[in-house]
């Protein structure tokens, strides 16, 4: 099978396609034929600079290694002790630094769940990481409740789009920041108000919100504390919380990590199946080296609206 590997970190030319043996499952493992994968921030950042300094040792990649997190595919082999999956199951999930490959080997205890076979696997290839991060920042750590007001920074990206939908499903009034070009898209997802971060100052337009979800950077996070009501919350996936500032203002701040339990994954799959969550596919790329390099270049260019998806042959 074909697999993308890194032997060093740097620009897109450090990506190499190699031929390796197809994996064979042990007793408690499954093999998934990859249908589609998402292009995500960790892929680009790690490819450029190596592992994040804060990564736990258990998941910190060591060269040479591959890339990729979320995926969709079809189970093609199961180990003798596997009962949760069967050959032919359509599945989605998380396989850290392992999805840039035509086949993925996973333990049957991995964060993987089946999806209805009538669902298109292409958008689902970019579903997990965005919804996991959004779920953590909005539901698990954000603790949104019906009737609250939520400000989401970066509402048009893969994570932001899911955060808007999750907040609306929870019954909240949603304000989202993005560019003027992205306003209509954010409104389609359910944003009640949009703010153009390039021409408008959100600190002059918003006050006393129940939750701020920061998906952009430290500068935006620092400016967000004053718009949260006393007793409110701010979550961040990009920029560490200033604990002295949150304590001074009487608010709760949490740095959110994007993961889902299998049960949580099944919950969001149900919402997706019911049409309550969607994935906008911004662009697809074939699983070919030059196309993958272009996907990274396009992601790095910024202004992403929806997901960039790498699609494998049938």
TrEMBL record:
It is found in: Cytoplasm. GO terms for molecular function: oxidoreductase activity; RNA binding; zinc ion binding. This is NADP-dependent oxidoreductase. It comes from Levilactobacillus suantsaii. It comes from the Bacteria. InterPro entries: ADH-like_N (IPR013154), ER (IPR020843), GroES-like_sf (IPR011032), NAD(P)-bd_dom_sf (IPR036291), Quin_OxRdtase/zeta-crystal_CS (IPR002364), Zinc-ADH_QOR/CCCR (IPR051603). Residues 10-310 form the Enoyl reductase (ER) domain. PANTHER family: QUINONE OXIDOREDUCTASE. Homotetramer. GO terms for cellular component: cytoplasm. PROSITE patterns: QOR_ZETA_CRYSTAL (PS01162). SMART domains: PKS_ER. Keywords: Cytoplasm, NADP, RNA-binding.
């Amino acid at each position: 099978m074909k697999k993308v590997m890194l032997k060093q970190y740097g620009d897109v030319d450090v990506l190499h396609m190699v031929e390796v043996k197809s994996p064979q499952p042990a007793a408690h493992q499954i093999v998934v034929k990859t249908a589609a994968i998402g292009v995500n921030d960790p892929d680009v950042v790690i490819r450029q600079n190596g592992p994040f300094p804060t990564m736990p040792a258990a998941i910190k990649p060591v060269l040479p290694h591959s890339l990729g997190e979320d995926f969709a595919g079809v189970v093609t082999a199961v180990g003798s002790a596997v009962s949760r999956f069967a050959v032919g199951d359509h599945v989605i999930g998380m396989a850290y630094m392992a999805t840039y490959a035509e086949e993925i080997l996973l333990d049957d205890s991995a964060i993987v769940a089946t999806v209805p076979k009538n669902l298109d696997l292409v958008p689902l290839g970019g579903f997990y990481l965005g919804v996991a991060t959004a779920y953590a920042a909005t539901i698990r750590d954000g603790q949104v409740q019906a009737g609250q007001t939520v400000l989401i920074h970066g509402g048009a990206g893969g994570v932001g789009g899911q955060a808007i939908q999750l907040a609306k499903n929870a019954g909240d009034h949603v304000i989202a920041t993005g560019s003027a070009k992205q306003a209509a898209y954010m409104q389609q997802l359910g944003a009640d108000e949009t703010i153009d971060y390039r021409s408008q100052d959100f600190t002059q337009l918003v006050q006393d919100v129940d939750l701020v979800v920061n998906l952009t950077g430290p500068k935006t996070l620092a400016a967000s504390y004053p718009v949260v009501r006393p007793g409110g919350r701010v979550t961040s996936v990009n920029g560490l919380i200033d604990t002295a500032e949150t304590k001074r203002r009487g608010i709760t701040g949490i740095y959110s990590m994007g993961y889902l339990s299998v049960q949580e994954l099944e919950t969001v799959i149900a919402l997706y199946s019911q049409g309550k969550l969607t994935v906008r596919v911004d662009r697809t790329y074939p699983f070919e080296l030059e196309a993958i390099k272009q996907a990274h270049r396009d992601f790095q260019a910024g202004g992403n609206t929806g997901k960039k998806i790498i699609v494998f042959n049938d």
